[in-house]
C-alpha cells in the first residue's frame, strides 16, 4: 500500500478540506494518506469527513502542531 503525504500547514478552512477531498479522490481504495495541518478546525473536520465518506481514520495526533491524521481510503 502506498502512503501519500499531504502537507497543508499553509492552508486554513475551508481550503484544507477542499484539498483533502481532491487528493483522496486520486488515491486507490486501501491506500493511505498522511495529512499535516496547523488549522484547528481540522481536528473535528477530518474525523467528520472520514465518517461521512467511509474512510478509516487510522491515527490522529492533535497534541501539537502540525496536527497529523493518517487516513485509509
Number of domains as seen in the coordinates: 1
Q: What is the architecture at the second tier of CATH?
A: 2-Layer Sandwich
**SS-based structural class?**
alpha+beta
> Would you report the number of β strands?
4
Q: Segments where pLDDT lies below 50 for 5+ residues?
A: none
Helix content: 25-40%
Distance between the termini: 11 Å
Envelope shape: globular
General description of the model:
With 73 residues, this protein is an alpha+beta fold. The protein has one domain (3-72): TusA-like domain (Translation Initiation Factor IF3, 2-Layer Sandwich), CATH 3.30.110. The protein is 32% helix and 32% strand. It contains 2 helices and 4 strands, in the order βαβαββ. Strands 1-2-4-3 form a 4-stranded mixed sheet, covered by helices on one side. The longest helix has 12 residues, at 42-53. The protein is globular, with a radius of gyration of 11 Å. The model has no long low-confidence stretch (mean pLDDT 95). Pfam families: TusA. Residues 4-73 form the UPF0033 domain. Keywords: Transferase. InterPro entries: TusA-like (IPR001455), TusA-like_sf (IPR036868). GO terms for molecular function: transferase activity.
Per-chain topology:
Blueprint: E1 3-7, H1 15-25, E2 32-37, H2 42-53, E3 56-61, E4 67-72
Offer a few descriptive terms.
73 residues; alpha+beta; Translation Initiation Factor IF3; 4-stranded mixed beta sheet; 4 strands; 32% helix; globular; TusA-like_sf; transferase activity; TusA-like; Sulfurtransferase TusA
Structure at a glance:
The chain has one domain: Translation Initiation Factor IF3, CATH 3.30.110.40.
Amino acid at each position: 500500500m502506498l502512503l501519500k503525504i499531504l502537507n497543508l500547514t499553509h492552508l486554513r478552512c475551508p481550503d484544507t478540506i477542499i484539498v483533502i477531498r481532491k487528493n483522496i479522490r486520486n488515491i486507490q481504495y486501501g491506500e493511505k494518506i498522511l495529512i499535516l495541518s496547523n488549522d484547528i478546525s481540522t481536528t473535528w473536520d477530518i474525523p467528520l469527513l472520514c465518517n461521512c465518506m467511509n474512510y478509516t481514520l487510522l491515527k490522529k495526533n492533535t497534541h501539537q502542531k502540525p496536527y497529523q491524521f493518517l487516513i485509509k481510503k
